[in-house]
Here is the input.
Amino acid sequence: MCQEAIRKKGGRNEPPGKGWQMGEKAAAIYAGSGAVLYHGDFLRIAGSMENESVDMVFTDPPFELTGGGMKKGKLLYEGGEVFQNCGFSTKEINFKDWLPEVYRILKKERFFYVMSNDRNLFPLHDACIASGFKFCELLVMDKKMTVPSTYYPKRAEFILMYRKGRFRRAHFSGSTVIETRIPRGKEKRHPTEKPVPMIEHLVRCSTLENEICLDPFMGSCPAGEACIKNGRGFIGVEKERRWFEISQDRIKSLEV
Ligand SMILES: C[S@@+](CC[C@H](N)C(=O)[O-])C[C@H]1O[C@@H](n2cnc3c(N)ncnc32)[C@H](O)[C@@H]1O
Here is the structure.
């Protein structure tokens, strides 16, 4: 449904109009600049998305924080601000619940990128394989800064790359290590915000202009910004109002 809306309107600066039906499952949407943003639970909203209708999926999913960051179920943030546990719990949504939906919605011979820390890498990989994905590559996001750890100071996060179905050549460049700078200080909108340039690189490697990328857990929507800056359509879902509104503002600020 939403994919059709982006396509019909040429993907740029047009909200979905005639032909757009707001399903009861979609509590709220915002559409503009080639992006459609849903405020709600991905598991509910996924039901209104057609089989094999998006060209790429990038996501940084909710998972249990292991060590650091959490205090009495709350997420500590910079400057002493404390967030409620905004969905970062495997108790609320399990890999095995949402991965089959992502598999269903992604087109054949297309790529799925999912971010992980070291602790969730193995269960996440097992769940991806169980959902039907074929493993392609393990990419490393080199943050070029370390955070303290029990063992070695941590400098990397990981991007698991999978395909659905057969291999198809894309436009790969660079290497399996992506050096990047994570948003910090005042530029940071979300406690686990990912850098736009890194996502732009993945989007350019894996899609063509006007193709559509889905992020089922968009947070503050860096993937949406990456897509719009590169002429791709974007569909994002976020459960928490606070991040949904930040995402909406981010997309609005890109409107020309
Ligand atoms: C790891 S964060 C993503 C952060 C994002 N990559 C960014 O750079 O801002 C995961 C997000 O998933 C959201 N979330 C958790 N459960 C969800 C669900 N069932 N449906 C949609 N969003 C959900 C959380 O509120 C959180 O913002």
About this structure: Residues 78 and 250 are 21 Å apart (CA to CA).
